[in-house]
Design goal:
The protein has eleven helices and ten strands. With 379 residues, it is of the alpha+beta class. The protein folds into three domains: 121 residues, Orthogonal Bundle (Butyryl-Coa Dehydrogenase, subunit A, domain 1), CATH 1.10.540.10; 96 residues, Butyryl-CoA Dehydrogenase, subunit A, domain 2; 148 residues, Butyryl-CoA Dehydrogenase, subunit A, domain 3, CATH 1.20.140. It is globular, with a radius of gyration of 21 Å. The two termini are 26 Å apart.
């Protein structure tokens, strides 16, 4: 096992990046602005629109955030994974609608492909091309061999499900079978034969879709037989990004609920005076701190201790998933009668947490995988 760098490798450059993100979101993405953007209509039968601010996305691109984990050789900045995790944490804290997290995940897959086409695609990401991954089947399995897409005569056909930020993405990395082997292919969102069908999901701050491919031309990123390896190599980093998003949302829920408990008065005392309120909030804080430590530890391991990266990433996703449920439920309950209303901003973060905690497996799933890794119990 390699020696872990001090503070998970989070140095001066990473601190500056995080601080700039905090200022950006403070200036542009307060909770009331996000609520006004994505939650204008409370009607359950409203149209399934993808609501986001493209001008803010362009500002992010100009700040260089899409290039953070792109290697310098491909035109990026080449920062460690903890830098992207710090950005993901701030994005979760703001519940910011953008394709940045999906683009990070695509970057990790491309880094694992190690082909000329992948290097070119990484350069496009560094230049601001939003990219998402599409390798989940209809049953929700993201195991490479379970894809419902196939490659025949150089064209891909089939359907990918649960594709994140599909309406925001410019291109997709698609896993496809060729015989019994898995390859990875780059497909433009506007390519002939691509149909993006939006899903109705609980999270108002994101969009999801299933994508139908009908004899679509694609660029090979990883040949059949090596795509599954690239996906598995990228998965620890992907789990870190999702976990960091949950940590950020949990921090917003805790801070907002604590502030409410300090100012809302009942029985001549602030709500925070009562042990039935203060003690569970302390438990939320402890759960967030645990999830955050595990997430940064896993992110550090991806760069410095890859043999343990999967184990640490599954630990982080498991803890973050449980924390997401607990922090959300306490926030709603301790806001009392207004906690479950549409006008209370808590529901934005509650729904984002519920989406994240099942994305790429809930806590129980990852504990099962951990048991298999550590003591050989089959999943």
């Amino acid at each position: 096992m390699a020696d872990q760098p001090k503070n998970f490798g989070f140095g001066e450059d990473e601190t500056m990046l995080r601080d700039s993100a905090q200022k950006f979101f403070s200036d542009n993405c307060t909770a009331d602005k996000i609520h006004g953007l994505v939650a204008q209509d409370h009607n359950v039968h409203r149209s399934n629109d993808c609501l986001w601010d493209k001008a803010l996305w362009q500002q992010i691109v100009e700040l260089g955030w899409t290039a953070v984990c792109v290697p310098e050789a491909a035109g990026g900045i080449g920062m460690p994974l903890v830098a992207a995790v710090a950005l993901a944490e701030e994005i979760g804290k703001a519940a910011f609608p953008s394709p940045l997290l999906s683009t990070f995940n695509a970057t990790f897959v491309l880094n694992a492909c190690q082909s000329d086409a992948a290097v070119k695609a990484l350069g496009e990401i560094a230049g601001g091309k939003a990219t998402s991954i599409a390798f989940t089947n209809q049953q929700g399995s993201w195991e490479p061999a379970d894809t419902d897409v196939s490659l025949t005569n150089g064209k891909i056909s089939g359907t990918s499900y649960f594709v994140q930020d599909a309406k925001k993405a410019d291109q997709f990395i698609v896993s496809a079978k060729q015989g019994g082997d898995i390859g990875l292919y780059l497909v433009a969102a506007d390519a002939s034969g691509v149909e993006i069908i939006p899903d109705s999901i609980i999270d108002l701050t994101r969009d999801q879709a299933h994508i139908e491919f009908k004899d679509v031309d694609a660029i090979e990123l990883a040949p059949a037989g090596s795509g599954d390896k690239a996906i598995r190599e990228a998965m620890p980093a992907i789990l870190c990004i999702v976990s960091a998003d949950m940590v950020g949302a949990g921090e917003w829920l805790l801070q907002t609920t604590v502030e409410y408990a300090k100012t809302r008065v009942q029985f001549d005392h602030p709500l925070g005076f009562f042990q039935a309120v203060k003690h569970p909030l302390v438990n939320v804080m402890l759960d967030i701190d645990g999830a955050k430590s595990l997430t940064y530890n896993a992110a550090c391991a991806v760069d410095t201790d890859p043999e343990n990266a999967e184990k640490f990433a599954r630990m982080a996703k498991s803890q973050a998933g449980d924390m997401a449920v607990f922090s959300s439920s306490r926030a709603v309950q301790f806001h009392g009668g207004i906690g479950f209303t549409w006008e209370c901003y808590v529901h934005l973060f509650f729904k984002r947490q519920m989406h994240n905690q099942v994305l790429y497996g809930d806590a129980r799933y990852h504990r099962t995988k951990l048991a298999d890794l550590l003591i050989g119990i089959a999943a």
